[in-house]
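Backbone geometry:

***
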Amino acid sequence: MNIVLDSSVIAKWFFEEENREKAIHLRQLHKQTDIAIKVPSLLLFELGNIFLNKKAFNKQFFNESISTLFSINLQFVESSNILNIIFTTATDYKLTFYDATYVALAQNLKCDFITADKKLYQKTKKLKFVKLLSNFPTI
């Protein structure tokens, strides 16, 4: 089973945040090959920004986190072939192009998209494949 995770979920793998255990459980399912996590390459840039915004200026922590990210073999999917879908999604749901990338990728792959971003979820919740991490059952 494929799923798309955005940076709001994956950042919880590295930072103590609400619903961290649920995010880590998804990572564990991926490592066990029960699910396959698909992400756009945009994720790397968003994670870099998250590290900066959280004042995580320790290069060693950043490098170890990125190494961990690559070690679990996330499946990076190029999103260039779905730019029109991203644009339409962004305009239809009043999203940033960045957020729309994850939604459009999941739509294109016909799989669930999981986010911890409540505002993003509220804007897209009528799409049945969009899920909010906090609504997942406690693990």
Remarks:
- The longest strand covers residues 36-40.
